[in-house]
Amino acid sequence: MKPDAIDIKILEVLMDDGRASFRQIAQRTSLTTPTVSSRIARMTKAGLIKKFIPILSGDSVNRGVTTLLTLKAGSASVQKLAEDLAKMREVEAVYMTTGQSITLKATLDSVQSLQSFLAQNVLKKKGVEVTSNQIITSTVKEEPPSLLPNTLVMNLKCDDCGGDVTSSRPYTISAGPSRYYFCCKTCRKEYLAEHGKRLAKISHKLDA
Ligand SMILES: [Zn+2]
What we know:
By secondary structure, the chain is of the alpha+beta class. The chain has helices at residues 5-16, 22-29, 33-45, 78-86, 111-123, 185-202, and strands at 65-72, 91-97, 101-108, 129-135, 171-175, 178-182.
């Protein structure tokens, strides 16, 4: 399922100001507040919006040494190594790249710390070698993923069968603050048969 024009409008406002209220977004997009709130809930549920966080300015924080490291590992261990590295606080980004390589971005307080980080976490591992280690001297551009509508995907799962919800206007049930999504009419019906009573308690607005 892909975000539609309404989702994109909302995302555009959020990408500019992640703290904009539902009401402010509604005003800026000429949508209603309930539309804004249900669309944001849907995009969050589908994993398109991961979280809202402050973006610290790299220049205003004395961040020590930031490096881009490229590692080569045997094909069996490359995925595991990437996952292990991704868990570390010092590691800001991990990319799997062509040729069984991993490129990562790590920040440490000094060159010495960087060396011991490498010694402990990378060089000790069998079959892993550092093919490039480049310390960043200045950041010219660093932005979160940009909003290219055709590249966005939402993985909204049917609350009944767990299958993909592919329609841009999915079957839904609203109960109180929650909204449930379904891939088809049948799933919605099944879900209502099983959970209808519970949902009706949550909301009287439920239309079956
Ligand atoms: Zn389904």
